[in-house]
Amino acid sequence: MPLLTTPYAELDLIRQPEQANDPLQAFDAADEYLLAQLHEQAPGADCRVLVLNDSFGALAASLAGKLQVVSSGDSHLAHLALEKNLARNGLPFDSVPFVPASEHWQGPFDRVLVRVPKTLALLEEQLIRLQGHLAPGAQVIAGAMIKHLPRAAGDLMEKYIGPVQASLAQKKARLLTATVAERPVARSPYPSRYRLDAPALELLNHANVFCREGLDIGTRAFLPHLPRELGRARVADLGCGNGVLAIASALANPDAQYTLVDESYMAVQSARENWQAALGERPAVFEAADGLAGVEKQSLDVVLCNPPFHQQQVVGDFLAWRMFQQAREALVVGGALYIVGNRHLGYHSKLARLFRGVEQVAATPKFVILKARK
């Protein structure tokens, strides 16, 4: 795998989660461009740099020990990648502080390096949070591959930070640089909310939550077919998003015990707040994690899952397959994984390779709900 070679460092980086013979590298030309641009400005060692949405730690690890770096983002896997890549390159795994997107950072910062996220609502929330945390003369430099850089990203930077200058393209990457100027203090439009009729819920969604403006059609198909009469079952909502599956299940199963897991800090924050609004002080576990990787083997009776089919801009079923494997490890013998998926993804045959029995619970023209028993 190629090394990331920049004026700051030469690094051997890996992606998270790891997979054998991964054809994708843990950095791209936008990372290289951002680091080269920062180096050209010759910041001093006391320069405070905030790095946002650094998918695998390429930016923060490159700057570790050279500048005063803080990293922040909404991905637990990105946090894990940063720690592993620091250690992999002979740096203390905790040498770059990481602030989850569910928490607020403390400035002032002289430079902010931003990888433009897939969800522009997350970018907007981050730009709003920067207000009051930028030093005089600070710059916010956002980078992306051109095919993933919407015009609206520059508009948001102009609105919340200051005048924006677009760079020339370099290796199919482009930078947008905003210099701090006086702007009205903005109030965040997030979290957003929407209502469900069945079950009757109002669901809160922080900026980076999947389908923030309304229930996704896969979950809508899944809800009427969630398992009932679970007794005191130990249930995990794997990839919980705003927590709607676990909450709906918990309302129908008052004695069951729930764990809600997602790799998005904002999703877990949303799930916790929605659970408390719907179920008060009923105990539950909320965790930003690498799926069920840290869960004890054979410790769950039921897993509910609406699996993702992409990681950032990369589309595929690798994450779903990994979640199915994790579920199998965590379930007791006789336990069951319930999933919803697009028909064309062929999850039935994939699950049959891991579980002793797979049955179709229900179907719509687009989705299937499957039960896989260990």
At the fourth level of CATH, the homologous superfamily of the largest domain is Vaccinia Virus protein VP39
Overall tally of structural domains: 2
CATH topology-level fold name of the largest domain: Rossmann fold
Spatial strand sequence of the major β-sheet:
5-4-3-6-7-9-8
Question: CATH class of the largest domain, please?
Answer: Alpha Beta
Number of strands: 20
Radius of gyration, CA atoms, in whole angstroms: 22 Å
Strand content: 25-35%
Q: Point out poorly predicted stretches.
A: none
Biggest pleated sheet: 7 strands, mixed
Structure description:
The protein has 374 residues and is α/β, with parallel strands linked by helices. The protein folds into two domains: 1-177, Rossmann fold, CATH 3.40.50.150; 190-371, 3-Layer(aba) Sandwich (Rossmann fold). It has ten helices and 20 strands. The strands form five sheets. Strands 5-4-3-6-7-9-8 form a seven-stranded mixed sheet, with helices on both faces. The chain has a seven-stranded mixed sheet with strand order 14-13-12-15-18-20-19. A two-stranded antiparallel sheet has the order 1-2. Strand 10 (192-196) and strand 11 (201-205) form a beta hairpin. Helix 4 (120-130) runs parallel beside helix 5 and helix 7 (244-252) runs parallel beside helix 8. The longest helix is centred in the C-terminal third of the chain and has 15 residues, at 265-279. The radius of gyration is 22 Å and the shape is globular.
